[in-house]
UniProtKB/TrEMBL annotation:
<dbReference type="Pfam" id="PF09848">
    <property type="entry name" value="SLFN-g3_helicase"/>
</dbReference>
<protein>
    <submittedName>
        <fullName>DUF2075 domain-containing protein</fullName>
    </submittedName>
</protein>
<dbReference type="InterPro" id="IPR027417">
    <property type="entry name" value="P-loop_NTPase"/>
</dbReference>
<feature type="domain" description="Schlafen group 3-like DNA/RNA helicase">
    <location>
        <begin position="252"/>
        <end position="615"/>
    </location>
</feature>
<dbReference type="InterPro" id="IPR018647">
    <property type="entry name" value="SLFN_3-like_DNA/RNA_helicase"/>
</dbReference>
<feature type="region of interest" description="Disordered">
    <location>
        <begin position="641"/>
        <end position="673"/>
    </location>
</feature>
<feature type="compositionally biased region" description="Basic residues">
    <location>
        <begin position="648"/>
        <end position="663"/>
    </location>
</feature>
Amino acid sequence: MVPHLAERWKRFRKNDASDGERAAWAESLVELARVMVDAGRGHVEMVVECAATIGQSPKSVPTIDVVLLGSHPETEGLSVQLVELKRWSSVTQVDSATATEVVVPGMGKKPHPALQLEANYQRFVGETGPLRKLSFECGGFTYLHNATEESIQPLLGINAPMGAYSAVYTRDRREQLMKDLRKHFGGDSGYSYAEILLRRMGVRNTPLLDAMIMSRGEDTVFTLRREQRRVADHVKDRAAKVLGENATDLERAVFVVTGGAGTGKSAIGLQLKAEFEAAGLEVRYASGSRAFNGAMQRHVGYGDREFQESFTYFSSFMNPPEEPLDVLICDEAHRLREISETRSGEKGAKPQVEEILDASRVAVFFLDEGQSVRPNEVGTQQFIVDAAEKYGAPVVPLDLRAQYRCGGSDAYVNWVHDLLGLSGKEPGKWVPDGLMHIEVADSPEEMERIVHAEARAGATARMVAGFCWPWNPPQGKEKRLVADVRIGDWHRPWNAKGDSYCENGAVPPGTLWSVHEGGIGQIGCVYTAQGLEWDWCGVIMGDDMVRRDGQWVFQRGKRRTDKETGYRRVAVPGSLDDEVRNSNLSDEEFRQCVRNAYHVLLTRASRATVLYSTDEETRAYLKELVGEVQIHGLRPSWQELPPALRVPHQKRPEHRRPGKKKPQAPEGQDPLF
């Protein structure tokens, strides 16, 4: 526990945890946990070193040792206790007239802990606090587990601070503490009340597509945080100069925003789109992903032609507009190709990035080079810089580091990087952090059971796999999908290709697979998952990446044609992605493409990833890293959310008519979080 807390501390506080902090965690947190268990309240959740921050840097914000969250025994509503843990064994009084300040032997003067608790209460429930405007019981106490009541009398005297946060417990009042905890917290309801705090702190975000549906037509789509807002403001300020009244038509601005999965690239891009459109500018939002554009055009923008036409592809500018667009936002720009090519085979006359620069006065590229999954995807920062130089357009590089996907768990994202060999570090064992959950299934049936159960309960959930099986075309007039993903007796189809429904309309087209309720029965791949997210994601690692003798081995597969059925099947296990397994690709390029593909797949979940490998040795390795999962209290299932947080995900809007109001957030839900 201590090394994990120290890593989180360094991540947020930007410095190493002191030996004193580490000793306090090892001693005080464990003692508080024992008290909770002995009181029969081991189910109450502890949020440790919590800063009441929304949109602020937690580096300079005071933290409270522990926030306890559970249900109240009488009201059954939220109950919160703020806790200061002290290892003091004795104190002496400074001023006989007051006990607001005491002397701790070896540490000097210290404020009364009740004053710290009162200040933290104001931070949590004040006008900008995460628990503002909530109806709940909140109190606080100090626990000095090394002291006796006699040794800390100045903290208990008549002159000591009074109030809901002035309770002080010592080791000889442990029984009283347990009795009072039972008054504050009821039995195990099965709900995770910490989720209320995490949601209100912005750690749990409203999914991108839900936010778009609720905010479509408004100039505010997302509330951007810290560096996200800084990046957006920088783009807007520079664009205002290029597009202002005194600017010439030859002036251009080019931005390259880099950031890993979940850093908010799409959120910034979509917010910029909304703000530029609200200012009356002509804007297009381009992507190299048919799945992302399909979700925007056919799900979010259903029935709204103007909205649909504002989303397009990188290859749409082979013939530039007569007048350049004011702003062209390019999401997933790592998927830029050298030359544009239409589905009919028509090719562009110049590099794709130059077509984009010709078509716009302000171009904003969002990219993550770690998500480039095909050899002909050439979108890098240097590639864009070189192209912009030909136009005399200076490039403004901007970087995003804080990530908000995967439950905001940087520990999980770093673990994925280490696991796949993208960081150069050996992966350590996964330590649950309360933000992101991961488990390894013993079979595809088990993985499917978990994912489908969450989907039935109301969560968004999908299963995806490495491209290790052939992809046969739909069969017959009804367009029946072939069960191509075959693992033992478990056979499931890939998602449908193209824009057409299959199986008499029951199976959505690939462009809607990620959001249509009928998509849960098919397996997605990196090309239909990139740029999107779900609460739960089952990831099947195929034989293109297996563990042998302590290292990863990458394999190119071969396919065969079954003589009886005519279906393509696996002949040699490994990658069957034609563009990746191509013999023209070097071994190192092949390895990088496979790693990047699994990096995309493993970072699609916002709450939990369920892993399964088709290879027994690899599966054993993953189980060793992840460990056995104690299901009770650790699996963040949809049913464990308090009822108020089980907000249904947004359905596709009805056909939009002029003047019709946009969908509203359910009562009690902040529309932006």
